[in-house]
Specification:
mainly alpha, about 150 residues
Length: about 150
Amino acid sequence: MSSADPQRSDNAASPDSPPPPKPSSPKRVVYQVETTGNYWTDVKEAVKRISVRDDLSHINEIPCARNSLLSGIASGVGVGIIRGMSTSVFAASNWAVGTFMLISLGTWTICQKNLEEERRRIQQVMEVMPKQLAKSNKSSESSTEQKST
């Protein structure tokens, strides 16, 4: 077939085919890891994908984010107020921001570690359950056979 053939078009759908289904709800775009091999080009691409508005609007979907941010905010305010009573406002605000960052990162790290341990335990249970179910089925079948004889 030639490229001028009107019967065949690789780029457009045929008029008889139905349009592709539209998604029922807007989903957040998940990017796959793609590298160009050049560090700075990859960094530029990563920076282009950062959207503060989108990231903050979906912060509730990030595991442990809510608890760690609330802990950090409360700790930062508390330390900032206490330090503000004895030092300048500038020094107190530095202490508040530092405390916020330290507590937020610490609680988020601990929470992520706990989630990973829980996922690992669930995976172990999911691997063991079919074996236990098969073993219990065999033992119940053998006990049923013994009772019938």
